[in-house]
Specification:
about 475 residues; 33 strands; mainly beta; about 5% helix
């Protein structure tokens, strides 16, 4: 490890000198093996296209009026495979506009970071920037009448239009503060979004932020931590915001060695999960010890009658070994029971196959629920499997849908058939890459008939690289 005077000199902020050393070492890194996140299903695209009236098989449900859009990394310029990490590429949006049973268009557009605008020879997009990071590559949500591409660790939200053009980088009218998250959670009861946020250079704090229905941050509560934990996601219940302080932390040695992604497994960081009262301060957090593990994505969480909190999640026993270029380890689907009385967390494996990207009926956020939809992942290559799963948490069953050889799904989301539809009454939607043909599809399934033939398939005339998160944004 690094001598302490060096650590002291650079604690709190990475100096220009450190960045110069990092850049030099990044350019000198030599790949000992191919970077799986730059080839196969992950190969970045090199251009933007628009396909008007893409071919459709089956019948698109008439009530699906809006935009399905998914975000993910797609470097605009060639990168050194030895230093590149999947999580740091420029954001690219892939969207299909649905209206009155038709697919109006498919288009893919880079989110305009400065590097994208410069590479494409365009003027830079307006709006405030974080001094080091302006890539928004992880998720995309509709909120307060706008569409936002979002990321964690410092980059500001980027407002995009209904046809995926970048409008402006935003600090929510000056209310954002330090940073936002790739995983804010919408509270259907209040119309607000809750997020646990971190800033890669401020290793001693997290923030609980509440984004009001008006698109302005109304609460920005600091939470003291150590080592700079990477907090990818959170969850809310009626009383609490769940804070996951787990042993993946900021790594100065990773930066100096030239790696582009500065987070590593840290055996010296105590694993804990906190229950923060929604309007409480950091002093009010009930911290509960948990065995060392890492969680990118919970499904839902809820409170039990005896005061415990149950959170279901995809759980890894470790994450980010020294030379990885993306997630490593195999995530099991688990149920965690967080007990504020004993300040402990007990874990039960629901399914020991490798699952990620859990989604559920988000009308039930924070409340008891029954169904979770997940995507199979591989230890080598991550999103290269051909299956998705539907878990019935009430009877413990799991249905498996296999798209067939070479047909690789990403995250599938649930959209209720109507505002009053029952849970699981609605549609599942996501992109499937057909690696045999080098093309992609937007596949729409009947959630209640999970293994039945697809309700509709929108045929997309290019391969969409595997990315992260998407949502369906109603458009009137």
């Amino acid at each position: 490890s690094m001598p302490s005077p060096v650590k002291t000199a650079i604690r709190g902020v990475v100096t220009k000198g450190v960045m110069a050393v990092a850049g030099f070492n990044r350019s000198r890194r030599k790949a000992t093996q191919p970077n799986i996140f730059l080839e196969g299903v992950h190969t970045p695209l090199t251009e933007e296209i628009t396909e008007i009236d893409p071919k459709v098989t089956g019948a698109i449900p008439a009530g699906l009026n809006g935009l399905y859009v998914r975000n993910g990394p797609n470097p605009v310029s060639p990168v050194n495979p030895a230093a590149h990490h999947w999580f740091v590429g420029d954001g690219m949006l892939h969207g299909v506009r649905l209206q009155d049973g038709k697919a109006l268009w498919y288009r893919n557009r880079w989110v305009r970071s400065n590097s994208v605008s410069d590479a494409l020879g365009e003027p830079r997009a307006p709006g405030p920037r974080h001094p080091r990071i302006d890539v928004a590559n992880t998720n995309i949500v509709g909120h307060a009448g706008k569409i936002w591409a979002i990321v964690e660790a410092g980059g500001y939200p980027v407002e995009v239009s209904e046809d995926l053009e970048t409008r402006a980088h935003s600090d929510f009218d000056g209310t954002l503060g330090q940073s936002f998250s790739a995983h804010p959670h919408y509270d259907p009861d209040t119309g607000e979004m809750h997020a646990i946020c971190y800033e890669s250079q401020q290793t001693n704090l997290l923030w609980h932020k509440v984004l009001g229905a008006d698109g302005r941050v109304r609460r920005d509560e600091p939470i003291p931590v150590e080592h700079g934990p990477m907090v990818h996601d959170c969850m809310i219940t009626p009383k609490y915001v769940i804070v996951m302080d787990l042993p993946v932390t900021f790594s100065m040695s990773a930066i100096i060695s030239g790696m582009s992604f500065p987070y590593r497994w840290n055996e010296n960081h105590k694993a804990r999960i906190g229950l923060l009262p929604r309007e409480g301060s950091a002093d009010d957090i009930i911290w509960c010890d948990v065995d060392p593990c890492y969680i990118f994505h919970p499904a839902n969480a809820y409170e039990t009658e005896d005061g415990k909190v149950v959170m279901d999640a995809c759980v890894y026993d470790h994450m980010f070994a020294p030379d990885n270029t993306g997630p490593d380890g195999v995530p099991k689907f688990e149920s965690l029971t967080i007990d504020p009385a004993t300040r402990t967390v007990s874990r039960r494996v629901i399914d020991d196959r490798a699952h990620e990207f859990p989604r559920y009926d988000e009308r039930l956020t924070g409340k008891p629920y029954r169904y979770v939809y997940t995507t199979a992942v591989a230890a080598d290559g991550f999103l290269t499997e051909t299956r998705i799963f539907k878990h019935d948490l009430t009877n413990g069953s799991c249905e498996v849908r296999d798209f067939g050889s070479g047909r690789v799904p990403g995250e599938f989301i649930f959209i209720p058939a109507s505002e009053t539809a029952s849970e699981d009454e609605g549609w599942l939607m996501g992109y499937v890459v057909d690696t045999n043909a080098g093309l992609s599809e937007l596949v729409i399934l009947d959630a209640a008939n999970f293994t039945a033939p697809a309700v509709a398939t929108v045929h997309i005339p290019q391969r969409i690289p595997q990315g992260f998160h998407g949502n369906f944004i109603p458009v009137g």
